[in-house]
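Feature request disguised as a bug: please show the residue count (188) next to Ribonuclease HII in the output. Example input:
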Amino acid sequence: MLCGIDEAGRGPIAGPLVVAGAILNEPIEQLNDSKKLSEKKREELFEKITKTSTYHIVFKSSKDIDSKGISQCLKESILEIMNSIKANEFLMDGNTSFGIDTLQHKIKADATIKEVSAASILAKVSRDRYMCEISKDYPLYNFEKHKGYGTKAHVEKIRKYGRSKEHRFSFRLKELGEEKGGIQKSLF
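Example output, currently without the count:
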């Protein structure tokens, strides 16, 4: 039995890292890399996956990322999934096993292995929903639009208002002159 694992939120400048693992207990049609699916299709597939699969989803906050680093957060999340789901094999999308001997990895697995596609969708939808939810608490940043990625509009909001508690302070922004020095303080 294969458990596919994938993440969402490795690169954004705000919000959590979300890692999901999934075992398909019955076939689900139209699974693919979450980035290749429309939001509507991801939501439909998310409901099917959560109703018919064995899965586990892990959130690591921006504070976790700042204190431990993104790689350590990924490793901890993968190990939590491996301890929570009984499977014969674990396969992660990407090019590294993060030093975990029993974890296999494959580039583009999220587009070619159904279990990893399912994990990709679980992670992406969970993270997007979270970002939309917190946008109510941080209306100045429009998280519901860019989901925490470093868009021009998002960077301009940080320039104007500083970072919120949901931002990653360890991620430096060239556009703000941070590559050599200080990070802006949080206003919220």
